[in-house]
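fold-stage: in
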Amino acid sequence: MLLVMQTLALAQNNKKWNVGVTGGLGRDFFYRKYHGPRNEIPPGAIRFFNSLNSLKAGLSVERFIRPRLAIKSQLECSFLEMPNKVMFEISSIAWYPKNEKHYWGSFSIGARGYLKSAGPFKVFADIGVQGDYFLGLKRYPEGQLRRSYWEAEDYFPFVPSAYGGIGVRWKRFALAADYQFNIARTFAIDNPKIYNNPKHLKRSISRQGVSLKATFLLIKAGEQWY
């Protein structure tokens, strides 16, 4: 909160800054790879799966460095509804399986360029990099009992990603579509040692995601920068 207050105070004194709150809806697509001989991949292993939906909320900050070109950073939380026990392959005898809820945090930095326009609608494009961090999940292992797990099982919780997007701004409102993808995979840590089974293959997961986001600017830069 202190960081947000300082950012808003600085932005109010400088017409080069945009500061806004963002909300969005999207979907994420995952690919799981097994690292080992094909004949040792578990029977019925699910290698491709996707979130049922992905809700996003965040705070974005832009600073113009020249007309129609800005540096943009964003702090964001994502709430994913996932098929029950697909992500971490944990079996259960739950008689009433419910979808898991996964929580991710991310911080991104990149560039935003605006097309020159004399009208009220300003078209822009984004490109940048971001770090994704797995915060935890909620699942229902016993009937309708909900439990929270603030861990990433045996997977590394941090993974670097990249993104690109396009959108349009009108006054204090902006609407944008973006695409994110993992630059690296999240690897499981030494599974044979953990499970005492040399055939329990090390595995990794990579993600791609698409989303539609709406932003409202709390602080808006001067029109001379667009």
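fold-stage: in (second)
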Amino acid sequence: MKDLKKEPYKHESHNFSKKMLNYQYCVHCGLVTLKNDFTVWSIQQGCNYRDHPSYEYKRKQFTKLFD
């Protein structure tokens, strides 16, 4: 599985046209608009924010992960 090559990062805009409870979400990638720093960063990077070169660094910077 690790041998799969990632496509290079290319910005693709979100489409927050749907709403569930009090939160909007992107109909393309499913990102929910939470009010935290990591979500704000993810919204700025677009739908394929997971392919961004600094994704792992930002995820560790903004979230508390249990290793």
